[in-house]
């Protein structure tokens, strides 16, 4: 099973700042099958990025994904109030479990 | 508009059974792989099970934590996804989400639509 590690656990930033979230895999992720999701309290997760760098339908270009192999990054260029949430990465490139990372909480400084 | 509506959650004793359902609408259900994902209170997301489409022989996969206890199924004629949960344990307590897998090749197969979730509590 591929284990995903996200850092930092919590990111405290102010609106307008840039957020950089990291996701590291215990082994190479096939075909860049890496997604990022946003989850707000009491809500279901929402797909932001798939294929490591493709934005999902309706997602603002303030969100961008990059990386390959074992190291991936989600960048939020300028934080808006609605961006403060928990962000999860997920790998889906192997049939041995479509694992999620533990999440990074982005909160207001 | 894509809609996924889960139902069937509730309180059950350890060792008991429960069946969850997910009613899908607004898209061609039969084309998509469908998954269940759960989230224990205050914890992260855990993938539970997948069922592929007819073109992929309705093949199924389970997380190791539920294999042999949970059964995923689908009824394409009714646009319905189900999860039969047997021999429930306290650690199965969670919100259970159904999720649609995006169409396309491997890099596309993320979960592009989610239901609102249904709560399962396993407690004596």
Tell me what the structure shows.
- Chain A has strands at residues 4-7, 10-13, 19-25, 34-39, 46-50, 54-55, 63-68, 71-76, 86-91, 104-108.
- Chain A is mainly beta.
- In chain A, the strands form two sheets. Chain A has a six-stranded mixed β-sheet, with no helix packed on it. In chain A, strands 1-3-8-7 form a four-stranded antiparallel β-sheet, with no helix packed on it.
- Chain B is mainly β.
- In chain B, strands 2, 4, 5, 6, 9, 10 and 11 form a seven-stranded mixed β-sheet that branches. In chain B, strands 1-3-8-7 form a four-stranded antiparallel β-sheet, with no helix packed on it.
- In chain B, a hairpin with an 8-residue loop joins strand 5 and strand 6 (60-62).
- The chains are: A mainly beta (109), B mainly beta (124).
- The A-B interface holds A 1, 30-33, 35, 37, 39, 44-47, 50-52, 54, 56-57, 88, 90, 92-93, 95, 97-103 and B 35, 37, 44-47, 50, 61, 63-64, 97, 102, 105-117.
Notable traits:
heterodimer; A: 109 residues; mainly beta; six-stranded mixed β-sheet; four-stranded antiparallel β-sheet; globular; B: 124 residues; seven-stranded mixed β-sheet
In short:
The complex is a heterodimer of chains A (109) and B (124). Chain A is built from no helices and 10 strands.
Q: Share of helix among residues of chain B? A: under 10%
- Count of DSSP E strands of chain B? 11
Helix count of chain B equals 0
Low-confidence stretches of chain A: none
Order of helices and strands of chain B: EEEEEEEEEEE
How large is the share of residues in beta strands of chain A?
A: over 45%
Mean pLDDT of chain B: 97
Distance between the termini of chain B: 40 Å
The sequence of SSEs of chain A as H and E is EEEEEEEEEE
């Amino acid at each position: 099973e591929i284990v995903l590690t996200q850092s930092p656990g919590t990111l405290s930033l102010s609106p307008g700042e840039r957020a950089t979230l990291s996701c590291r895999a215990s082994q190479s992720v096939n075909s860049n099958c890496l997604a990022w999701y946003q989850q707000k309290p009491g809500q279901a997760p929402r797909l932001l990025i798939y294929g490591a760098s493709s934005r999902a339908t309706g997602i603002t270009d303030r969100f961008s994904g990059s990386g390959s192999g074992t190291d991936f990054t989600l960048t939020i260029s300028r934080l808006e109030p609605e961006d403060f949430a928990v962000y999860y990465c997920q790998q889906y490139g192997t049939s041995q479990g479509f694992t999620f990372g533990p999440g990074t909480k982005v909160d207001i400084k | 508009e894509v809609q996924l509506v889960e139902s069937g959650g509730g309180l059950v004793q350890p060792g008991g059974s429960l069946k969850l359902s997910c009613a899908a609408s607004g898209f061609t259900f039969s084309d998509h792989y469908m998954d269940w994902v759960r989230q224990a209170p205050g914890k992260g997301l855990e993938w539970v099970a997948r069922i592929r489409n007819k073109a992929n022989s309705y093949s199924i996969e389970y997380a190791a934590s539920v294999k042999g206890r949970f059964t995923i199924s689908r009824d394409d004629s009714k646009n319905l996804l189900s999860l039969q949960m047997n021999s429930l344990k306290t650690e199965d307590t969670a919100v259970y989400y159904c999720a649609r897998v995006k169409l396309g090749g491997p890099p596309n197969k993320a979960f592009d639509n989610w239901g609102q979730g249904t709560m399962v509590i396993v407690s004596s």
